[in-house]
Amino acid sequence: MSSDLGIPLRQTAGPAASPSPHPADAPDPTGLRSRLTELREDLRRTDASLDRLLTEWRPGQSGDPYVTVTEGRRAQARRVHELEYGARSTLLVFQSGANTVAPVPTTLPDPENPSAEEPDPAHEAGPGEGSAEPEPMRKDGNPDAAYRVVVDRAFLSEPAALRALDLRLARGHDVRVVDQPLIKLVVADGERALVQLEPERSMELRPPLVLLATELFESVWRRSRPYLREDGDLGPTDRRILQLMLSGLTDAATAHQLGTSPRTVQRRVRALMDLTAVTSRVQLGWYAMRNNWV
User: Fold this and answer.
1) Secondary structure (3-state) at 109
2) Strand 90-95 relative to strand 146-151, pairing
3) What is the pLDDT of residues 130-156, one digit of tens each?
4) What's the alpha-carbon Rg for the chain, to the nearest Å?
5) Is the dihedral of CA 47, 53, 56, 62 positive or negative?
6) Is the peptide bond between 105 and the residue preceding it cis, with omega within 30 degrees of 0?
7) Which residues contact 214 (CB under 8 A, 6 or more apart)?
8) Which of 68, 65, 138 is nearest to 106 (CA)?
9) Domains in the chain, please, with CATH?
10) Which residues have CB under 8 Å from 81's CB, separation 6+?
11) pLDDT digits 0-9 by tens, 214-229
12) What span, in angstroms and rounded, lies between the C-alpha atoms of 242 and 236?
C-alpha cells in the first residue's frame, strides 16, 4: 500500500483480517477513517517540515534578502494588513483559532454602520510605541485579489467565525475547511509569505523561500473540503450543521455558533439521518461527503 504521495506505507503485523461486515458495494466508514488518517499524517509531515525549517532559520544578520522576522502582535497585524491590501492578484490564507493578532470580530464590518472603519485593538500603540493614532484598518477585503482561504476546526469555534466566512463567500472568496490544526499563513502574489511561528513572532519569506509556503498551502488545499457548497437542495442551516459536525464541534458548540439550542441541532441531525436512511453520524458524514453536501 502507498500514500497518494507515492510513499510506501509499512503494513502492520497482526491477526488475519476478518471478513468485512459490509457488502462489497457499500461505503465502509472504517476504511474512510483510515484514508483520512493517512491524509492527515501526510499533512502533518509537510507542516512539520516547514515549521522546523522556519524555527531553525535564525539568520540574525541585518539586511537578509530572504527572511524578515516581525516581533509583537501590533507589528504582525500591521504587516498582515499591508500584505493583504498590497496584493495585486492572489492571496493564499490559512486561518486558525486563537486569533490574538487580529481577533475575528474585529475584522468584521459593523452591521449597523458598514462604512465605519474602527482601528483594530491589535493595532493600538502599546507602552513605548508612541501615542499617534494608527491608520484605520479596512475590513472590506482587497477587491483586486483572488482569495483562497483554508480554515481549521479551531477557527470554526471562534466567535463570529461563521459570519466571517459568509462574508468571504459573499465577496467571492474560495473557502475550504480542514480538520487538523493549521499554522497562520498569508501568501501574497507568490512573492511574500508571512508565517506565524508563535503569538509574538512571525517570519516573512521572500523568493525563493516563499515557494515552501506556497507548496504547503497547495498541499493542504488539495486535501480540504469546500465550505458550504451551493449545489443541491440542502438548506444553508443544515449545511452549516454538517460542516461543523464533520469538523468535530460538539452539539453545544454548534448551537452557539448558529445562535440556536443543542436540542435543535440534535433534531436537525436526526432529521438528516432519517432523510439519508443511515443509523449513525459517521454514516451521515460519509453520505454528505459522497453527495457533495459539504
Assistant:
1) coil
2) parallel
3) 333 444 556 778 999 999 999 998 898
4) 21
5) negative
6) no
7) 92, 187, 190, 193
8) 138
9) 54-109+135-226 (3.30.870.10), 229-290 (1.10.10.10)
10) 123, 137, 138
11) 999 999 999 888 887 6
12) 10
